[in-house]
Amino acid sequence: MNGLTATLIVLVIVLIIVAAVAVILGLRARRTARKPEGRPTDPFHTGDQDSLRGDPRALKAGDIVEVRGQTYTVRGSVRLSEGGWNWSEHLLDDAKDTQVWLAVEEDPDLILSLWTPVADAGEPGAKTVDFAGRTYHSEESGSAEFRSEATTGLAERGTVRYHDYQASDGSKLGFESYGGADWEASTGEELSRYDVLIYPTAD
Hints:
Elements: H1 2-34, H2 47-53, E1 64-67, E2 70-82, E3 85-93, E4 99-106, E5 110-118, E6 128-131, E7 134-150, E8 157-166, E9 172-178, E10 184-191, E11 196-199
Antiparallel strand pairs: 1-2, 1-11, 2-3, 2-7, 3-4, 4-5, 5-10, 6-7, 7-8, 8-9, 9-10
């Protein structure tokens, strides 16, 4: 009897273990079945860099931006749209009152460029413009609607005309006229994602 009882006990334990394993496997199968299929992702998306270096697309007044080791504060932003195309320009100011503009757009990849206001560049319209020892060739022109945030020196809303030029070495020359005012010129250079580090302020 003792041997038979021991055998029965062992069989009961084995059955309990088998039942428990079956229940666990069944629950896992249900969870797997309920999981939605993963959405396709862009292999070139800069998500990892955005988490490490801050997202330029989320820039706003008060954020701190470091460009190639130079630290600036975002004074204000201009949000622009032309048809279905949208981009932003952010006014950056350092402790010495040096002001530059950081342009942020996607085409479809993220494009960052730094613009420095200049004088005596003339006006756009010609196919080429000679300035500061470079010959710039006309790239694109048009007009866009804009709205400004915080401190930009611009009206809250309006229209801007623009004309962009580029030299053979990649240097840029841009002209903008806000609300029909005189043309203002800036020289620009494209930045890599690694040139820009962002410290966002708390919302």
